[in-house]
Amino acid sequence: AQTVTQSQPEMSVQEAETVTLSCTYDTSENNYYLFWYKQPPSRQMILVIRQEAYKQQNATENRFSVNFQKAAKSFSLKISDSQLGDTAMYFCALVTQGGSEKLVFGKGTKLTVNP
Amino acid sequence: DTGVSQNPRHKITKRGQNVTFRCDPISEHNRLYWYRQTLGQGPEFLTYFQNEAQLEKSRLLSDRFSAERPKGSFSTLEIQRTEQGDSAMYLCASSFWGASTDTQYFGPGTRLTVL
User: Fold this and answer.
1) Which of B40, B114, B105, B57 is nearest to B82 (CA)?
2) B33 and A102 in contact by Cβ < 8 A?
């Protein structure tokens, strides 16, 4: 079975600063993908960034980047130059390739960006 | 390109009533997933379809729950004899399954309140 753990229920950051959200996971599979999704208050979940496990290079999307440590099964999200619109729940999720490819989510981290 | 849509967005019902939710996926997507999200938790997998075939159901999906995707396009999720414990956000996601694992794109969800 796959598990995803987010150990920070809540975090806050000042606008324009950098924040890192932590995620660890467990799977016995070799082929898998990791995702960070963002869920703003009362709005739908949207993809922030995606990482293929077979790629050593860390994924980057504009102000968002990940630190993927495969041996440690760690997948943290770094948000640079935080903006008020980054305030949201952030979920780390895992998909193993093959079969249903259902997402397994962590419990989320509530991020608040303060002006 | 329209995203995933879900209707209704909110549903309030009395215990014991039946409810039905609808999900319209992104048009070219052949996989459709249902998840349930309770307060303070990440989404949990319920079931998924590949085209019109329902290929996996979670043990969370009791006999009171049924899902269909009759023509491989939209899907419905029905809950019979609702219970207060069914109160949650029901999320639909779609993806294109092919040579590699695709990202799942989420709809806005249907928030169910059972009184």
Assistant:
1) B114
2) yes
pLDDT digits (tens, 9 = 90+) for A71-101: 999 999 999 999 999 999 999 999 998 878 8
CA distance B68 to B10: 20
CA distance A59 to chain B (A): 14
Retrieve residue B114's tokens: 């059972």
- CB burial readout A19-43, b (16+ within 10 A) else e: bebbbbbebeeeebbbbbbbbeeee
- A100 in contact with chain B, both atoms CB, cutoff 8 A: yes
The closest of B53, B57, B1, B43 to B24, measured between CA atoms, is B1
- Reading the block at residue A55, the tokens are 């790629």
Q: What is the pLDDT of residues A8-49, one digit of tens each?
A: 999 999 999 999 999 999 999 889 999 999 999 888 899 999
